[in-house]
Design brief:
Shape: globular
Number of strands: 11
Order of helices and strands: HEHEEEHHHEEEHHEEEEHH
Mean pLDDT: 92
Strand content: 15-25%
Radius of gyration: 17 Å
Helix content: 25-40%
Distance between the termini: 24 Å
Length: 231
């Protein structure tokens, strides 16, 4: 399966789930199995592991918000590519993790805006000659070499101030989990933190929440922040 399309699909489904339930979970990147797998993982506020969207495999559910019976893994990428309506897939996943389908979408939080920004930005890379991906500031792996990805952070002078790195509570004791990097052919071009901050390599920064108030659409934010990065 095309890895670029799976990258796009994984962020689309995760961002839309967070859009439905902005206060229920957060997302980190994990590499279990000694680093063999590549997952976007969902955790609740108590740091309980809810689900893994394995880009190398399937969706696995580990806990449900309503404590009902767990279901087996779902071939999520095949389902997404075959479905005509993303809402049906989202509804199914909502049921699988034990959350009701909302009657309307709540207002996007700063964290939701970050995930929506990443998801929308990556769509431009479909069938591109370049590999675009989003990686977390922390390499969470059961193999060797895990921890803060210093080589990504050091590319952004706007992150040099300690208050920028520590303005959000750490996750599992590590502040790097709060940051996401958009990479082109393994080179980081943008950094986002889950409070809504966006940082560029030239030292400039933006607040997605402030930008979103003026338009209420994601693509104008992307053009404002990264017009020159898009092909």
């Amino acid at each position: 399966m095309n890895t670029q399309l799976v990258e796009i699909a994984s962020w689309r489904i995760v961002s839309e789930l967070h859009r439905r339930y902005p206060d229920k979970f957060r997302v980190i990147e994990t590499h279990p199995g000694g680093g063999l797998y590549d997952c976007l993982a969902l955790f609740d506020d108590e740091k309980n592991h809810i689900a893994d969207f394995n880009r190398e495999g399937r969706l696995h559910i580990f806990a449900k918000f309503d404590n009902s019976t767990l279901q087996g893994p779902l071939d999520i990428w095949a389902e997404m590519f075959d479905a005509n309506n993303l809402k049906d897939t989202l509804d199914r996943i909502s049921f699988m993790i034990g959350l009701p389908v909302p009657s309307q979408l709540p207002l996007s939080t700063p964290t939701t805006l970050v995930y929506r920004f990443i998801s929308a930005f990556l769509t431009h890379s479909a069938f591109s000659i370049h590999k675009w991906e989003c990686r977390n500031g922390c390499l969470d792996t059961s193999g060797e070499g895990g921890g803060k990805r210093h080589h990504l952070f050091e590319k952004f002078p706007g992150l040099g101030k300690e208050e920028n790195l520590r303005k959000i509570e750490p996750f599992f004791g590590e502040y790097a989990y709060n940051f996401w990097f958009l990479l082109k052919d393994d080179i980081p071009f943008l950094c986002l933190d889950i409070s809504g901050g966006v940082y560029r390599r030239d030292g400039s920064s933006y607040n997605l929440g402030h930008l979103y108030e003026g338009n209420r659409k994601i693509w104008p934010l992307i053009f404002e922040v990264a017009r020159d990065i898009l092909p």
